[in-house]
């Protein structure tokens, strides 16, 4: 059965309906690995494998950097006004109708689904986070492959699934995965006098700090600088979420766990902008709608269900700044001593934002829960559950009931962050916020609250957010089983911590001239838990023998209830640059709180990598300034977030030995890139880690990070898989990975991976001036839909505000179009049919130029795509994106990325063709150009023909074979006829129909044969002519051998768009 998770419309419904049949969590069964037998690539395949490092990335039929095969086109209520309340009820009914339709076993198509899923955000944007996207709550795989379409029934009957599985071991189960020196009696020096004056000023400053009444607005307005979507998210369920490029990912593509650099965090200010606040997710971000989400509160057998409007409008809200930190902040320092069970967090998994919402106690009281649960000596707890679905079951936790009901603890049901609706990554539409507590207790996407007489017993409450004694080194041990349930190991209040943010990691300061005598300001931040004030911050330049007193600064109105400090502080101390450069033992920071507790000097390792708050130390290095040749000092922090290795801390010998074992031997079978790329789907999933090939198919159903984390790397020969796996996995995960091993990549493929990694790093540093971005998805608005034929539409899109140009690098380049589905982004490449010319080109407009709308440069900040709609039939659901575009309401947005394509027409017979990664782009000149096109593959050829037609002095000759099924399938027929007619022989087009419907069809019939190619196209002619291909796989695969036999050579005079 398949249904939508948000069909849960009844107020007292306890469960959300699953998208697909439920899969048991990993802790319910042994984690078994099954590997399909594969003999490896043959000796001939290995011998014949191309030298990938010497070939362009657009080799016909192979995946390029966008994952597309070059030359291949895509295959065939009471708190609402009455009107809005009516809209919501109608939306519920439509969804219920669709659910009933599916439950009855009737197949539905994309048009059915999009028409039954109401989009509220265009008409009601007020309760949405910035950058909100519409998501179609289904998957392409379900619509096309899982439903009982006749075409699927026939396919299953004709090709019954057969495979031989070889078990690797019996499967193993780890327990659910697993300062001052004493004052000298001397007269004060100038430095001491300066310090004394600073202390007097600070005392006055602190005495004048003001209380927060919970009604002050947030002054931080720079919360979202970009609403583009990172390409790393496109094939995950988070494909609809805009995320800041300044966030450094800690656990690969998915789930999202990220932090900024410490310097970026400091620059953000005392109130952290939403977009750079650290993110900690255990799985996919749930897609919750304000109108349909309810918060259920259970007590004494009764359930009260609150809509978001009720929660917003019925209760008094308070708005207070709160500093929140991840329990794993600074974990990477521990991981370099000995691997823990967590990710490589550096020191910026912390932030301070305004959180606004009703007090939890007010909501509980209104739900009928008494302020006190009687004179019973039994302790009670408030339990919380989120609406997300991480791999180990629901994310739940609990806190003491008395703590929750104490109004001076300010426990909130937060609905706003920095005066904006919560970003989805931070719990939209409602989350728990417990000031002074660790982030792991502040449940996001809150859906359920209940009272119990015992602590929560869910996986994440027991097996996460625990600070274990150092002697516990495995979750398997008997001590671990007891201590993970022992109350002394649970983390609730944050511990105090301090961090140096400036000098920044890698910062270089010249010491030439008199600069060594100049002052330098060391800066950073510090925070504490439980509302305890940070009273002193101290900095040492000599290894802790002597300490300098730092000046502190709080956010405005930091005090609550007379003595509660929920915020962090910024601090600074001014020193001579010479003294800073000479701090050979390191520059250290520590802080003290109101109880005179002080940070410990040394690191205390623990299995989960929690609560590291040792002295934070950065180290200077004397170097030669590359700019002027003078001495300079460069600073290194202990670590950098994620997989970066620029910190001064290096892996211990124990860690190095463990890594050597993890990357041990592999079977001698070798696999070519071509073979690996075949295994790129859920039912057949290979990954490459450290140049070894693994069959991860059987891991998908129990992988703690979910399927998308693995499928994002399926069938890909790139370095990212290795980097992501190394950054987050422990010894147990490496052991399970080795059970999946098949063999290793060939040397040519290994060279390709190395070379491509360098090219990707360089490409990400290149910026775009137009709307398009190479590595991020940008929203564009559909403003017009024009019917050209019964099944072909021209779609006009408006560019984002502030963008004057689409940003295509030249003619023949295409863009990626993305539509948000529940499991991933639906992506298709299209070549715009307007504009044809780059923005910098001024095209001539002679009388003979075909005056079609598609042949004008971009002047109105719009662009066109011409797309054929493959409508559903009784036997199949039809095309995915073409039907969604046809039904999409005007004003809705879709994503674009690019420009893509390695071939650009420069005019007058010159083509720019990208070569192998990091190699210079080659320019080829051809007097005669042949095109073999098919179906929607016509569009890059159309752009080339239009450019030549628009340029009278461009004498390039063009011959085209355009293959289609029937006459109605010929795209842009009128424009093509006009090109042929008005260019007077410069462009000649031959249409070939395999199933012509019309008896009066005078064109070619049948298929594209070698004879037809030689009859209608230009011969190779010693490099003066070239052929370009774009069409469905059947067409391209059939003509390639014939063109090669004729004398065309790939990457020389034969290319795939």
UniProtKB/TrEMBL annotation:
<comment type="similarity">
    <text>Belongs to the nitrate reductase family.</text>
</comment>
<dbReference type="InterPro" id="IPR000572">
    <property type="entry name" value="OxRdtase_Mopterin-bd_dom"/>
</dbReference>
<dbReference type="GO" id="GO:0006790">
    <property type="term" value="P:sulfur compound metabolic process"/>
</dbReference>
<protein>
    <recommendedName>
        <fullName>Nitrate reductase [NADPH]</fullName>
        <ecNumber>1.7.1.3</ecNumber>
    </recommendedName>
</protein>
<dbReference type="InterPro" id="IPR005066">
    <property type="entry name" value="MoCF_OxRdtse_dimer"/>
</dbReference>
<dbReference type="InterPro" id="IPR001433">
    <property type="entry name" value="OxRdtase_FAD/NAD-bd"/>
</dbReference>
<dbReference type="InterPro" id="IPR008333">
    <property type="entry name" value="Cbr1-like_FAD-bd_dom"/>
</dbReference>
<dbReference type="Pfam" id="PF00174">
    <property type="entry name" value="Oxidored_molyb"/>
</dbReference>
<dbReference type="InterPro" id="IPR014756">
    <property type="entry name" value="Ig_E-set"/>
</dbReference>
<dbReference type="InterPro" id="IPR036400">
    <property type="entry name" value="Cyt_B5-like_heme/steroid_sf"/>
</dbReference>
<keyword id="KW-0534">Nitrate assimilation</keyword>
<dbReference type="GO" id="GO:0050464">
    <property type="term" value="F:nitrate reductase (NADPH) activity"/>
</dbReference>
<feature type="compositionally biased region" description="Basic and acidic residues">
    <location>
        <begin position="172"/>
        <end position="187"/>
    </location>
</feature>
<dbReference type="Pfam" id="PF00970">
    <property type="entry name" value="FAD_binding_6"/>
</dbReference>
<keyword id="KW-0274">FAD</keyword>
<feature type="domain" description="Cytochrome b5 heme-binding">
    <location>
        <begin position="668"/>
        <end position="746"/>
    </location>
</feature>
<dbReference type="Pfam" id="PF00175">
    <property type="entry name" value="NAD_binding_1"/>
</dbReference>
<dbReference type="InterPro" id="IPR008335">
    <property type="entry name" value="Mopterin_OxRdtase_euk"/>
</dbReference>
<feature type="region of interest" description="Disordered">
    <location>
        <begin position="153"/>
        <end position="191"/>
    </location>
</feature>
<dbReference type="InterPro" id="IPR036374">
    <property type="entry name" value="OxRdtase_Mopterin-bd_sf"/>
</dbReference>
<dbReference type="GO" id="GO:0042128">
    <property type="term" value="P:nitrate assimilation"/>
</dbReference>
<feature type="region of interest" description="Disordered">
    <location>
        <begin position="837"/>
        <end position="858"/>
    </location>
</feature>
<dbReference type="Pfam" id="PF03404">
    <property type="entry name" value="Mo-co_dimer"/>
</dbReference>
<dbReference type="InterPro" id="IPR017938">
    <property type="entry name" value="Riboflavin_synthase-like_b-brl"/>
</dbReference>
<keyword id="KW-0285">Flavoprotein</keyword>
<dbReference type="InterPro" id="IPR001199">
    <property type="entry name" value="Cyt_B5-like_heme/steroid-bd"/>
</dbReference>
<comment type="subunit">
    <text>Homodimer.</text>
</comment>
<dbReference type="GO" id="GO:0020037">
    <property type="term" value="F:heme binding"/>
</dbReference>
<dbReference type="GO" id="GO:0030151">
    <property type="term" value="F:molybdenum ion binding"/>
</dbReference>
<dbReference type="GO" id="GO:0008482">
    <property type="term" value="F:sulfite oxidase activity"/>
</dbReference>
<keyword id="KW-0479">Metal-binding</keyword>
<comment type="function">
    <text>Nitrate reductase is a key enzyme involved in the first step of nitrate assimilation in plants, fungi and bacteria.</text>
</comment>
<dbReference type="InterPro" id="IPR017927">
    <property type="entry name" value="FAD-bd_FR_type"/>
</dbReference>
<feature type="domain" description="FAD-binding FR-type">
    <location>
        <begin position="775"/>
        <end position="906"/>
    </location>
</feature>
<keyword id="KW-0500">Molybdenum</keyword>
<keyword id="KW-0560">Oxidoreductase</keyword>
<dbReference type="InterPro" id="IPR039261">
    <property type="entry name" value="FNR_nucleotide-bd"/>
</dbReference>
<dbReference type="Pfam" id="PF00173">
    <property type="entry name" value="Cyt-b5"/>
</dbReference>
<dbReference type="GO" id="GO:0043546">
    <property type="term" value="F:molybdopterin cofactor binding"/>
</dbReference>
């Amino acid at each position: 059965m398949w249904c939508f998770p948000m069909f849960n419309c009844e107020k007292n419904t306890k469960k959300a309906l699953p998208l697909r049949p439920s899969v048991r969590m990993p802790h319910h069964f042994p984690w078994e690995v099954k590997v399909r037998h594969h003999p490896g690539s043959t000796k001939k395949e290995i011998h014949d494998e191309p030298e990938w490092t010497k070939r362009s990335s657009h080799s016909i039929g192979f995946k390029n950097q966008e994952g597309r095969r070059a030359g291949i086109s895509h295959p065939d209520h009471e708190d609402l006004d009455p009107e809005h309340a009516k809209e919501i009820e109608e939306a519920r009914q439509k969804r219920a109708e669709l659910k009933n339709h599916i439950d009855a076993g009737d197949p539905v198509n994309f048009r059915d689904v999009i028409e039954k899923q109401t989009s509220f955000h265009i008409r009601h944007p007020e309760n949405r986070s910035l950058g909100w996207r519409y998501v179609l709550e289904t998957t392409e795989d379900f619509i096309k492959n899982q439903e009982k379409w006749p075409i699927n029934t026939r396919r299953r009957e004709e090709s019954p699934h057969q495979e031989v599985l070889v078990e690797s071991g019996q499967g193993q189960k780890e327990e659910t995965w697993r300062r001052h020196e004493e004052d000298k009696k001397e007269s004060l020096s100038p430095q001491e006098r300066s310090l004394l004056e600073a202390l007097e000023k600070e005392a006055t400053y602190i005495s004048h700090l003001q209380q927060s009444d919970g009604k002050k607005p947030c002054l931080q307005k720079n919360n979202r600088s970009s609403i583009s979507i990172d390409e790393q998210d496109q094939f995950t369920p988070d494909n609809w979420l805009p995320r800041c490029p300044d966030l450094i990912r800690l656990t690969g593509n998915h789930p999202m766990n990220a932090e900024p650099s410490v310097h970026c965090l400091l620059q953000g200010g005392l109130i952290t902008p939403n977009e750079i606040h650290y993110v900690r997710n255990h799985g996919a971000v749930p897609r919750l709608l304000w109108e349909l989400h309810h918060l259920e509160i259970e007590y004494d057998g009764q359930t009260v269900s609150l809509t978001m409007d009720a929660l917003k409008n019925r209760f008094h809200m308070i708005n207070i700044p709160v500093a929140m930190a991840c329990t794993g902040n600074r974990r990477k320092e521990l991981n370099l001593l000995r691997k823990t069970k967590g990710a490589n967090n550096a020191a910026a998994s912390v932030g301070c934002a305004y959180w606004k919402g009703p007090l939890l106690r007010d909501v509980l009281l209104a739900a009928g829960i008494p302020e006190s649960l009687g004179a019973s000596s039994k302790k009670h707890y408030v339990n919380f559950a989120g609406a997300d679905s991480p791999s180990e079951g629901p994310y739940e936790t609990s806190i003491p009931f008395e703590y929750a009901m104490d109004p001076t603890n300010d426990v909130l049901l937060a609905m706003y962050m920095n005066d904006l609706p919560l970003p989805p990554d931070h719990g939209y539409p409602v989350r728990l916020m417990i000031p002074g507590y660790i982030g792991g207790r502040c449940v996001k996407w809150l859906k359920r609250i209940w009272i119990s007489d015992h602590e929560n017993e869910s996986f994440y409450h027991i097996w996460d957010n625990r600070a274990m004694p150092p002697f516990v080194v495995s979750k398997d041990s008997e001590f671990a089983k007891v201590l993970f349930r022992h109350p002394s190991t649970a983390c609730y209040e944050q511990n105090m911590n301090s961090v140096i943010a400036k000098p920044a990691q890698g910062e270089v300061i010249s010491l030439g001239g008199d600069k060594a005598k100049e002052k330098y300001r060391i800066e950073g931040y510090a925070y504490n838990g439980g509302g305890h004030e940070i009273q002193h911050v101290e900095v040492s330049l000599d290894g802790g023998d002597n300490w300098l007193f730092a000046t502190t600064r709080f956010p405005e109105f930091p005090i609550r209830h007379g003595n509660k400090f929920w915020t962090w502080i910024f601090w600074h101390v001014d020193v001579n640059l010479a003294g800073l450069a000479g701090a050979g033992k390191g520059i250290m920071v520590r802080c003290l709180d109101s109880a005179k507790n002080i940070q410990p000097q040394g690191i205390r390792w623990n299995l989960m990598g929690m609560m590291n708050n040792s002295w934070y130390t950065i180290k200077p290095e004397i170097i030669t300034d590359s700019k002027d040749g003078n001495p300079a000092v460069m600073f290194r922090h202990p670590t950098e977030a994620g997989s970066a290795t620029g910190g001064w801390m290096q892996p211990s010998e124990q860690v190095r030995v463990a890594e050597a074992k993890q990357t041990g031997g592999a079977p001698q079978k070798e696999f070519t890139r071509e073979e690996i790329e075949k295994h790129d789907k859920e039912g057949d999933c290979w990954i490459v880690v450290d140049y070894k090939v693994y069959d991860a198919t059987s891991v998908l159903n129990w992988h703690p990070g979910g399927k998308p984390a693995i499928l994002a790397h399926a069938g890909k020969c790139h370095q990212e898989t290795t980097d992501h796996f190394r950054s987050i996995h422990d010894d147990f995960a490496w052991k399970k990975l080795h059970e999946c091993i098949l063999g290793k990549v060939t040397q040519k493929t290994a060279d390709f991976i190395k070379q491509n990694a360098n090219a990707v790093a360089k490409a990400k540093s290149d910026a775009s001036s137009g709307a398009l971005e190479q590595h991020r998805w940008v929203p564009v608005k559909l403003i017009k839909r024009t019917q050209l034929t019964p099944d072909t539409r021209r779609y006009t899109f408006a560019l984002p505000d502030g963008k004057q140009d689409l940003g295509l690098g030249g003619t023949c380049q295409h863009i990626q179009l993305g539509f948000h589905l529940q499991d991933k982004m639906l992506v298709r490449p299209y070549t715009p049919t307007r504009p044809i010319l780059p923005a910098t080109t001024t095209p001539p407009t002679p009388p003979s130029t075909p005056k079609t709308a598609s042949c004008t440069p971009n002047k109105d900040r719009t662009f066109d795509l011409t797309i054929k709609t493959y409508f559903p039939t009784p036997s199949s659901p039809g095309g995915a994106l073409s039907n969604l575009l046809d039904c999409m309401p005007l004003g809705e947005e879709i994503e674009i990325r690019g420009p893509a394509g390695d071939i650009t027409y420069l005019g007058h017979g010159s083509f720019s063709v990208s070569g192998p990664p990091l190699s210079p782009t080659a320019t080829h000149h051809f007097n005669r150009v042949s095109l073999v096109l098919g179906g929607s593959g016509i569009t890059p050829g159309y752009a080339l023909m239009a450019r030549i037609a628009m340029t009278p002095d461009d004498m390039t000759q063009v011959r085209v074979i355009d293959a289609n099924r029937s006459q109605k399938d010929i795209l842009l027929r009128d424009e093509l006829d006009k090109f042929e007619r008005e260019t007077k022989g410069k462009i000649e087009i031959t249409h070939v129909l395999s199933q012509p419907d019309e008896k009066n069809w005078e064109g070619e019939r049948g298929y594209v044969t070698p004879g037809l190619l030689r009859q209608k196209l230009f011969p190779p002619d010693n490099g003066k002519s070239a052929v370009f291909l774009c069409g469905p796989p059947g067409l391209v695969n059939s003509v390639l051998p014939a063109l090669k036999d004729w004398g065309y050579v790939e990457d020389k005079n034969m290319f795939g768009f």
